[in-house]
Specification:
Shape: flat
Helix content: 25-40%
Order of helices and strands: HHEHEEHEHE
Number of helices: 5
């Protein structure tokens, strides 16, 4: 009989391709890891897509867990006052909004100002472990995401500053008479 061998892997052409998505948070934060443990269990034991979505978002880097202001949360929760807003990120205060509606918000973090404003309006700030007890399948919740392109660094991305039609912000030490002031087209 002849010898059959399984095909090898051409290591020079890339080798074993591993899945590139995260399977756990990069952070060593024990509280985040406990929440991850909890939602990993819920995602496995319930059929709710909500729990899988939350678990996936808990793995994300800080850039992709963008913050959201109470004003923006209020805008998304208009007409959904009985539901719980869920954000895998930080909820920040917004001084531009004066009257804050009563809202129930679940988030990883709340700034002190935001927490005070929400509670003062008769709302509630809850953590993900409290949410898991109240809404184990994510029923009557609104899953929200902060704007990831709102970072200052994003303004520097794009076609070269100075290229025609470009609105990219240059990396300049300061804005003044002697710093990168072009003299028209030349």
């Amino acid at each position: 009989h002849f010898h059959t061998s399984t095909m090898g892997i051409d290591l020079r052409a890339g080798g074993r391709i591993k899945p590139s998505h995260r399977t756990e948070p990069a952070s060593k934060n024990i509280y985040l890891r406990l929440i991850t443990k909890l939602y990993r269990f819920l995602a496995r034991r319930t059929d709710a897509a909500f729990n899988e979505a939350v678990l996936r978002r808990l793995f994300l880097s800080k850039i992709h867990r963008a913050p959201m202001s109470v004003a923006r949360v209020a805008r998304y929760m208009k007409g959904k006052e009985s539901k719980v807003a869920v954000l895998c990120g930080t909820v920040t205060d917004d001084v531009r909004i004066h009257e804050l509606p009563k809202m129930k918000i679940c988030a990883l973090r709340f700034t002190d100002g935001a927490r005070a404003r929400i509670i003062q309006a008769g709302g509630e700030c809850i953590t993900f472990d409290q949410l898991a007890l109240r809404k184990p399948t994510g029923a009557d919740t609104v899953l929200l995401r902060g704007p990831t392109s709102a970072r200052e660094a994003e303004r520097h991305f794009g076609p070269a500053p100075g290229a025609r039609g470009s609105h990219t912000k240059p990396y300049v030490r300061t804005k003044g008479r002697k710093f990168e002031k072009g003299r028209g087209r030349r």
